[in-house]
Each structure stands twice: as C-alpha cells, then as structure tokens.
Write a structure and sequence with these properties.
The chain is α+β, with helices and mostly antiparallel strands. The strands form two sheets. A five-stranded antiparallel β-sheet has the order 1-2-3-4-5, with helices on both faces. A three-stranded antiparallel β-sheet has the order 6-7-8. The radius of gyration is 21 Å and the shape is elongated.
Length: 191
C-alpha cells in the first residue's frame, strides 16, 4: 500500500513541476510580446490612413483585467491552502505563486493598442477584422471584442482612457462595417 502512495507523491510532484513550467513558459512568451508591443505600435494618436493607437496605464489595465488579477491571486493562494491535504513540496509552494505573480504583473503593466483599417493590434498580437466579432460599445471602462474560433478564450478586452476607447470604437465600427472611408473623410474635415 505504501508503494501506491509513494507513486502518487511522485506523480503529484511531477504534475506540480509541470504546471510551474507551463505557467513560466506563458509568462516568458507574454513578456516577450509585451516588449514587442512598442515595435509593433511605435506611434500613438492618429495614424496614417485614419487609424488610432494608444497606450494605457496600470489603472486602465487593471480595469481591463480585474477578473484575471483576482483569479491569479486565488490560484497563488490555493497551494498554500491545500498543502495540509496534498503535502505539496516546499519548492513548489514558492515557485508556483512566483510564476503566477509574474503573470499578474504582465496583466497590469501598461500596453499599446492600435486600430487600423485592416488590423487590430492588442497584447502584442495582430488580428484581422474577419477574425473579430464586434457587438458595439456602450461606453464603459473597456471594449470587449470576441475572437472567432477561440471558444472559452474568445473575449478580447481593450483598455484605455474613455477618450481613447471612444476613438477606437469609432474606428472598429468603421472597419468591421466596411465604412472606413467615411471615418477618414470625417477626420480630414475636423482638421
């Protein structure tokens, strides 16, 4: 019987280190994407051909990702709460929350976004408009788009100041409804 529990302990340890490795790889990829954002969105404000680019602050990113932040905090606390039952190795009790803390930091660091006639640039990725579902924006602290084919991970919130979100929503509406020329003409009239 002790052999069965010994195997379970080894398997649990392997699964724990696998989870730590998995989260760490995601953090590294997200950190790389974060540093690439400035290259992908080098200019802010009005872009050539009527696009709009903006950056956020920690506050706006928290408002955008508050549910993720709370989830990461709870996930970081869970091993500490479960260790009396599962006997989680001390190293894992330190490494797993540390990896999640890295992910949490990347959730709230300021980011850059851009809306152009052809693409949306968000979180270091670019999306063609035919891969995005737009259901409008009624104001608020973020714009939430849906990514086609992403199932549970489909929501794509965009953060920013109310002015930036208003500019972005105007252009997103124009891009997905093929009325981009109207926006460009309107912007030229305002100048």
């Amino acid at each position: 019987m002790s052999e069965v529990f010994g195997t379970f302990d080894d398997t649990t340890s392997i699964v724990g280190f696998g989870a730590i490795l998995f989260v760490s790889v995601i953090v590294i990829i997200d950190a790389f994407r974060y540093f690439m954002m400035e290259r992908e969105v080098p200019n802010l404000g009005i872009l050539p051909n009527g696009g709009w680019a903006w950056s956020t602050t920690v506050r706006y990113e928290y408002e955008r990702n508050w549910a993720n932040v709370i989830t990461l905090i709870v996930m970081g606390l869970m091993p500490w709460l479960l260790t009396p039952i599962l006997d989680i190795p001390s190293l894992q009790l330190i490494l797993f929350p540390l990896a999640l803390f890295g992910m949490l930091i990347l959730q709230i660091v300021p980011k850059r976004y851009a809306v152009t006639r052809d693409i949306l640039s968000a979180d270091g990725f670019t999306f063609d408009w035919d891969r995005i579902v737009w259901r409008g924006w009624d104001g608020g602290r973020r714009i939430v788009l849906q990514r086609n084919g992403w199932w549970l991970f489909a929501p794509l919130p965009l953060g920013g100041s109310p002015d930036d979100l208003e500019q972005a929503a105007l252009r997103i509406e124009a891009a997905v409804t093929n009325r981009w020329k109207e926006i460009v003409d309107l912007l030229q009239e305002e100048e």
